[in-house]
Input
Amino acid sequence: MKEDTHRELNQIVAQLKGHLKYQKALGITTLLSQGVRRERLTLDGIKQELGACTRCRLHEGRNHLVFGEGDPHARLVFVGEGPGRDEDLQGKPFVGRAGELLTRIIEAIDLTREEVYIANIVKCRPPQNRNPRPDEIQTCLPFLLKQLEAIRPRIICALGTFAAQTLLETEEKISALRGHFHAYQGAKLMPTYHPAFLLRNPHSKRAVWEDMKQIKEEYKKG
Ligand code: SF4
Output
């Protein structure tokens, strides 16, 4: 009983810390800002603020900055890790082989790409598709958080380890994180495997389908 209370308390503290960090990323630095009228963020405004971003070293090798695309009022947002070669060339998220698989996954829950929003943790392609580094993630992340604040989705699907660990601020493995919803800034966040991982590990498709079925049920609630 005592242990349960302790765990719950830790969860609340972790959520509060995450919330404060989220607010800070959105430019709110004092709790007294409650009640102060803030301008509603828009995707266009965020895009303008980002401009031809050179805030981290990833801009050096990019062809295109991949901002994200889809319905600006989407109830469901997919968040991946970062652009790959095809995405960098086209300036759109998830357009390569992994992107085709993501499109099929979205269609399997009776939605289209146009009805959801798709973005990434970092907006420029890491060289040779290496993992984004912590400083690159920290520099780019505020823009994704602002996009989420502008869209205010009810459901977020974090695709792969980086997206799930970054948004949930945890080092837990994706295999432990997936399979159930996590509370995230007023939304429900479902971590699942990245489509690129699925291409290499087709046996994990069943697990993703289980996660997607939960998303579909939650989406139907409106
Ligand atoms: S990855 Fe993000 S922070 Fe870095 S240059 Fe690109 S847009 Fe800017």
